[in-house]
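The instructor's notes for this session suggest beginning with a concrete chain rather than abstract definitions. Hand out the sequence below and ask the class to guess, before any prediction is shown, which regions might be ordered.
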Amino acid sequence: MFRKSAALAMPAILMTLVLTASLTLLTLHFKNILLQSYQSKLEQAAEITSRILRNDIELHGYQHFDFDVVASDIGGSADVRVTIINEDGVVIGDSLVPNHDLDQIDNHGSRPEVLEAFEHGKGSSTRHSHTKGYDLMYYALKATIVSPGDHDHGGEHDHEPASHISDAGDTYIIRTAVAMNLFTDELMWIWVWVVVISLLGVFVVIMITRFFSSMLDKQAKRERESLKTEVKERTHELSLMQRLGSLMSACTTIDSAANVVHPIADHLLPGCRSGAITLIKSSRNRLDLITQWGEQWQGSDRFEPSDCWSLLKGHTHFSSEDGLEIRCRHSNMESDLYQVCIPLVAQGETLGVLHLNYDDQQALESNISKAESMAEQIGLALANMRLREDLRQQAIRDPLTSLFNRRYMMDFLEQHTYSAESQNETLSVMMIDLDHFKRFNDTFGHDAGDYVLKQVAMELKQSVPEGDLVCRYGGEEICIVCPGTDLDTATELGNMLVTRIAGQGMQFNGQSLGNVTISMGIANRLNAETNHDLLLKEADNALYQAKEQGRNRAVISTPESAPPAHSSDES
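After discussion, reveal the predicted structure:
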């Protein structure tokens, strides 16, 4: 606070010092001007008096000429004291002393200005007058006057007093004087004006300083408020970004992630008319629309990567930029909306595109940084979901046949067993084994055996209805769980699968593998006492019966069925 006050007061202090110095110099200058003015005034009065004396005496002589009257007239008109002194130093005329009192005036011959005038023709001095009580400025001028009867004026002027006409009669000293108290008064007025102007200048500087200080304070306050608003907006944006990332990281499906994007995008991207997200298929040859918000999506639901400029360039693409309009082929070419396409990239892999539509290009450009941050969050979330899904698939699927594994099948069967019990639904299980698979491996090799397993698994997966689960139970055994399927339907499906597998002729590396057959046991949940373990056991017993009966067939489990005795015959 002290530094701020000092900074604001500094201009006023500097201005005051400058004004004071300037006005002091002006005062000194005016003082010199006044002194010169007074000096000039005295010189002019002395010159005029000398000229009048010379003209009148030279024209008319000394007859009827009164020095005192001349001094009084000129001194009164010039507002100065005029004194006429003869060469003996006697005062013969004074503008302030009456004629009859001239004899009482002291001899002025020893006065400095008079001595200087007698010697050099003119003189000046300034000294204190004890009779007046103040300083006076004097100027003395030597005047030489020649009268018409200068050679015979003695007889004509015998009646003149000696105090008026000197015996020499031709040389006079005309002295003018002015009181210095007048000069002091005028100088005082100058100082008064100097002080007034200085105070006025300081006041103006202070007011200007306060005005600018107030303006700076208001501007600083506005900037602080703007900064607070900006910080608040940035904090809100960061909060939304964190919430978006947190919610999307918790999503397990694309649909749930899309539902999270919609409300956050409305708050995070004001002015956005509509938006959409497209994802690249695993084949990398197509993008599909997975979600949209706002107005209806004006573009293709499916398009190739080459149809989007953002994927071709590898970074954000604006439909209109720098006066050029270049729209992606997947968008509506006749639309008047400003569109931006932002690639969804995570870990160096492009997963899709974020599409945004705006009515105003300025609003689009002001939100582009937030949109790109949002795209980054979505890309990371999609990459995490894909990674989790890949790990999940690896955990629940058989790597050779891509069928679900036994662990997943047991969870699936247990879940649907409880569901069938609570909802009083049917549930069937098929246990399948490839006939003579060991001998097949010994004859054609394990590579051919793996090929046969994959082909049989693919055929079974394609043939069962949607909702049924096909899994690899272990080795060459495959299990099919059929929720909501009764025994007759399961039997019909089982016989169809046996016939279809047996009718395929398989070849591997140009070698015919012959016909591959399967044996199948079918079990159906009959009552609440049949749990999932018992259901599997019944299907397995029926499978052994199918093998005992000659293989390449489907056998239905019966309550009386019992596990066959151990046989050394190969499967």
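Then share the key points. The chain has 13 helices and 20 strands. The CA atoms of residues 129 and 277 lie 109 Å apart.
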